[in-house]
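User: tokens in, sequence out, please.
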């Protein structure tokens, strides 16, 4: 009987070897390993440890920290690739050679601001897959100075200063909260100032703020200057608000250009005729107003109590001088004693205020004081161009044949 061989057969060898190698076959790999094998960052035929690709430059990853939405996707891919190959311990040292992750750096402030401006401009181009998170704009913090109804807040002046440097529709759209806060601050100040003006001049009615303040938008239809916004807040008080035929008080708030004034700016032909007629016949009326101590001190440079000097200072007011006729008006002799007053086409007073006089607790009282000084002047103008029925002088209706035209030839 034949003796069996003690050596294992090739079949048994295959069986034993296949059992020992089963851990390396694809059918026995873990779910984590299978997921790692399908990862887009891993070469399917490579035995090396998977390393996630690094971005081309820091500028692409951190183009703008304030707007870019940085998710957790990259971190998850890295953690999966760390455990993507579980075949043996011989590849463990390769993990130590990865080095430190790329250091997160922030853009310099000037580059960051430039990047922000590019993002909100129309037609901005973004790389595919980029997600922007646009933060809702917020107004400036009030800081140590609270907002009050009877003061102009420093933030209002800061907004107007920024608007002058960025007079653009897109800029104002982004900074709309600052505009709203500044406008509300000015409106509340106007309401308090209205109370002071009504106390000084009883002919001024109590009107809604919308009938007193001017819009910030410029009319650029016939202007070479196409900037869309005024760089100041302003309001006017008359018997009919900011509009109408009556002389008005005017207040303007602007960094480095605030002013208080009043009068008639380029009145219509009929009103101008009445003013010239009154100056021709009763020059003492306007001169007695111009020699008022408050007007001379606050608006005419402190000139002496002299009618001629006061009248000359009045004609030299910038807004009066800029619109005056170069020659005498028709119907009046060029040697007329009041020719300087007759040449005027605007009858206004005005004085500038420093920012320190406007901002703060003393601003309201200072502006109200200047308005009070102008009451005799505004009253005189209205008595001439829009006289009350009971105060009409019949003698003033005579000799109305004086012209208003201009002899520039």
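Assistant: Sequence out:
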């Amino acid at each position: 009987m034949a003796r069996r061989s003690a050596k294992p057969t090739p079949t048994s060898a295959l069986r034993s070897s296949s059992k020992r190698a089963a851990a390396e076959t694809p059918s026995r790999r873990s779910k984590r390993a299978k997921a790692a094998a399908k990862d887009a960052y891993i070469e399917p035929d490579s035995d090396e440890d998977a390393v996630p690709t690094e971005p081309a430059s820091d500028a692409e990853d951190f183009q703008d920290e304030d707007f870019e939405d940085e998710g957790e996707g990259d971190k998850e891919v890295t953690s999966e690739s760390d455990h993507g190959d579980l075949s043996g311990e011989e590849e463990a040292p390769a993990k130590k050679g990865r080095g430190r992750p790329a250091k997160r750096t922030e853009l310099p402030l000037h580059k960051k601001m430039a990047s922000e401006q590019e993002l909100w401009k129309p037609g901005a181009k973004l790389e595919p897959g980029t997600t922007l998170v646009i933060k809702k704009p917020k107004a400036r913090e009030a800081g140590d100075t609270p907002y009050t109804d009877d003061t102009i807040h420093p933030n209002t002046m800061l907004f107007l200063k920024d608007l002058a440097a960025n007079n653009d529709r897109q800029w104002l759209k982004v900074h709309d909260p600052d505009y709203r806060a500044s406008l509300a601050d000015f409106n509340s100040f106007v309401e308090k100032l209205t109370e002071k003006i009504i106390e000084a001049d009883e002919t001024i009615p109590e009107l809604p703020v919308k009938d007193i303040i001017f819009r910030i938008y410029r009319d650029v239809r016939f202007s070479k200057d196409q900037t869309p916004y005024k760089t100041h807040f302003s309001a006017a008080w008359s018997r009919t608000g900011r509009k109408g035929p009556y002389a008005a008080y005017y207040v303007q708030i602007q960094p480095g250009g605030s002013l208080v004034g009043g009068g008639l700016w380029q009145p219509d032909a009929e009103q101008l005729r009445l003013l010239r007629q009154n100056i021709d016949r009763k020059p003492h009326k306007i001169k007695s107003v111009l020699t008022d101590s408050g007007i001379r001190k606050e608006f005419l440079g402190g000139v002496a109590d002299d009618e001629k000097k006061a009248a000359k200072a009045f004609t030299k007011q910038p807004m009066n001088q800029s619109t005056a006729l170069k020659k005498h008006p028709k119907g009046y002799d060029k040697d007329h004693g009041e020719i300087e007053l007759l040449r005027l086409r605007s009858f206004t007073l005005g004085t500038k205020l420093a920012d320190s006089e406007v901002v703060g607790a003393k601003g309201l009282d200072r502006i109200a004081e200047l308005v009070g000084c102008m009451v005799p002047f505004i009253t005189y103008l209205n008595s001439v161009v829009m006289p009350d029925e009971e105060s009409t002088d019949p003698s003033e209706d005579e000799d109305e044949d004086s012209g208003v035209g201009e002899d520039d030839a």
